[in-house]
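Q: What structure does this chain adopt?
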Amino acid sequence: MQNNLMSLLDFEYQKLGFYQQLANIFGVDSCFGQLSQATTLQVNAALFLIQNQGLSYNYRPLNQDSISSQLIENLEKAFIFESNTIQLCNQWLSSEQDANVRDFIFRIQALAYNSHIPLIRKNMVNVYQQNSSIQQESQVLGEVEKAQILFSQTNEMIEELRAGTLTQEKLGGFLSNLNYSLIGGVILGGISAMILNEILNKNKE
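A:
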């Protein structure tokens, strides 16, 4: 099984590549520039921790994530990246024994939840504020908040799935209640992929 810290670093490098592409387009002062800088610090900290453990990390260039011509779609992808960070950290924490690594994973998770997601959320609302009426702005804010709630509910169901307590009725009810018209297609796809990936992993066990 791959070292949790190595898995985390693989994922951070993937995020970094995505944010760097967008920072080059929208500028270092954009939210993507801020996310790129923050993720660079996280990558360097992970490399330092790996070195202290006497391990070596072989960087494996990954295929770059596609960049959309629409700013809002790039923000949605960033939202998914950080939401997946929270989910993956829960997964890594469930099997990690090293206290220093656990503390580092907690820090990465906290940054995603307390800093990165609020920054992305703010910029998503700003995009709509520039092109929408006050009434529509309020609606968009509610949609973004709803997406955050759905990711939280998805993580709860994944934990139940791992524990073997998730019923088909509960999963079916959750999926049927998704309002496709209120959630961006990219975000909805991210939620579906999270659930499907966990079901496939469960079937392999």
